[in-house]
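Practice problem 4.
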């Protein structure tokens, strides 16, 4: 029994075929049963669907629902004032070192009520969902104590209960050093390993563990200790790597079979090769590159050369990427990083799913996958990448609904 059948669509299945990374099917149909795709392909081959609801897409483009695989959606306050300081010449690192930056958001987050955190995050989530996002990753990292980290991850989980969207959570306790740690990064990592991580894992609040490996954050040795503990608890890891300098973060992530290494502006060839060997996805975040006015671009040619899958995400956060548009991110990926249209679209579907370890479940239009769809009022896939500040979403479908 088929529940619903979309016909007369131009499919971008995102299953690569010879000469076409988008897996285009003209005159296509998608059939769903109990939330999963049972057929995606030419209309002529579609199964009989007596009693099913039939939806005529009138030639529109139909893609997998979009996946935003790197966000920091849950936080208190904002950093508009710090933005003004940067306009007057202060750098991101200077602001962080003087106690602003991430730590100012930590204070605002600790002070915010559960309701306020949820309401603010929902506004951002709704904006993203209006562009066809059906799966989103949400990190903690603005609590930096066990109670607040757990609260933020709980808010992230709750988002997935009050909206039709899949939420994947990452524990980012190693995002910055909180003031009460009094400068002792090693002791803070020890506490994460001893207390926060086990509690978060036990409560089922984290699907993965992330860290910020950087001079202003944590050293490779500190990240390795955390990753060893995460791995022992059965959690996959991912890493903010090589964003502001090259500390060998990409290779470190690969050694721990990370799902993804993210940012990567300063990654070198050895890092790219290590990622290729480990199947680690390169998550590129052009919003942060743009907003911090970074000039070093991630080594896209090296990722291509070594076959590292590339994803694109908003990095939605108050400090380095106050961005809630994945469509604009596509345009930035093409314009700033010179990704092709095929690479951009793979970056928010198939490869973004892989960055979350969900490539077996979503990210392409294939039988057996979750029936998460975006139907667009455009004729050409390139239009999704080309426009700036225009949302052509016609219908969003999550799990067949
Ligand atoms: N890198 C980033 O760009 C964000 N976090 C990170 O590890 C910035 C977070 C912030 O400035 O609030
Ligand atoms: Fe980030």
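Answer key:
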């Amino acid at each position: 029994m088929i529940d619903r059948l979309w016909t007369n669509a131009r499919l971008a299945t995102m299953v690569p075929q010879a000469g076409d990374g988008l897996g285009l099917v003209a005159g296509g149909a998608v059939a769903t049963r109990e939330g999963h795709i049972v057929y995606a392909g030419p209309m002529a081959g579609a199964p009989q669907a007596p009693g099913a609801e039939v939806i005529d897409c009138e030639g529109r483009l139909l893609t997998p629902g979009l996946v935003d695989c790197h966000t920091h959606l849950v936080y208190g306050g904002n950093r508009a004032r710090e933005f003004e300081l940067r306009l007057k010449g202060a750098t991101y690192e200077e602001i962080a070192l003087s106690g602003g930056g991430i730590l100012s958001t930590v204070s605002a987050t600790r002070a915010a009520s559960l309701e306020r955190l949820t309401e603010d995050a929902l506004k951002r989530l709704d904006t993203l969902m209006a562009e066809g996002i059906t799966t989103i990753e949400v990190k903690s990292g603005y609590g930096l104590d066990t109670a607040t980290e757990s609260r933020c991850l709980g808010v992230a989980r709750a988002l997935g209960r009050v909206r039709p969207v899949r939420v994947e959570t990452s524990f980012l306790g190693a995002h910055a050093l909180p003031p009460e740690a009094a400068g002792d990064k090693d002791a803070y990592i020890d506490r994460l390993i001893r207390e926060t991580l086990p509690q978060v894992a036990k409560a089922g609040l984290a699907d993965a563990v992330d860290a910020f490996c950087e001079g202003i954050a944590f050293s490779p040795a500190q990240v390795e200790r955390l990753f060893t503990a995460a791995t022992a608890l059965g959690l996959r890891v991912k890493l903010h790597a090589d964003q502001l300098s090259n500390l060998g973060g990409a290779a470190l992530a690969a050694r721990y079979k990370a799902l993804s290494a993210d940012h990567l502006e300063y990654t070198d060839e050895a890092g790219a090769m290590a990622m290729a060997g480990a199947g680690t996805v390169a998550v590129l975040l052009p919003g942060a590159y743009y907003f911090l006015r970074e000039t070093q671009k991630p080594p896209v040619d090296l990722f291509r050369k070594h076959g590292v899958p590339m994803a694109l995400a908003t990095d939605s956060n108050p400090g380095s990427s106050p961005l809630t548009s994945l469509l604009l991110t596509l345009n930035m990926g093409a314009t700033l990083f010179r990704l092709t249209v095929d690479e951009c679209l793979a970056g928010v579907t198939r490869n973004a799913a892989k960055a979350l370890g969900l490539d077996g479940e979503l990210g392409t239009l294939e039988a057996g996958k979750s029936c998460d769809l975006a139907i667009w009022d455009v004729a050409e896939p390139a239009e999704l990448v080309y426009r700036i500040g225009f949302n052509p979403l016609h219908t969003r479908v999550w799990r067949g609904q």
